[in-house]
Amino acid sequence: MNDNDPALARRYGAFLMVGAVIAGLLYTVALMRRSYAALAVPVTAGVGVVLTLAMVLGRLLLTTPDEPRDF
């Protein structure tokens, strides 16, 4: 497997998506344990944006089509 292999990009994409989901779940559980609304609302919005970007990047890497092979 070389550095330009599409399977490598898909693997990184899958890992990134799984990591974003796990981080989101852990953050949600931690947020539900205490109620700090003044801090939690803007931080939650920021974390949501970052996790959404991670999911979009992961999906992009996961679904990148293979380049056609030259014969």
Q: Topology, pairings included?
A:
Elements: H1 6-33, H2 37-62
Helix pairs in contact: 1-2
Strand proportion: under 5%
Distance between the first and last residues' Cα: 20 Å
Q: What is the arithmetic mean of pLDDT?
A: 80
**Cα-atom Rg, whole angstroms?**
17 Å
Ranges where pLDDT stays below 50 over 5 or more residues in a row are none
Which structural class is indicated by helix and strand composition?
Answer: mainly alpha
How would you spell out the order of helices and strands?
Answer: HH
| Overall geometric form | elongated
* Number of E-type strands: 0
Fraction of residues in H or I helices: over 70%
Report on the biggest sheet.
none
Continuous helix count: 2
- How many structural domains in the coordinates? 1
Describe the structure.
- The chain is mostly helical.
- It has one domain (6-62).
- Helix content is 76%, strand content 0%.
- It is built from two helices and no strands.
- The chain has helices spanning 6-33, 37-62.
- Helix 1 (6-33) runs antiparallel to helix 2 (37-62).
- The chain is elongated.
- The chain starts with 5 loop residues before the first helix and ends in a 9-residue tail after the last helix.
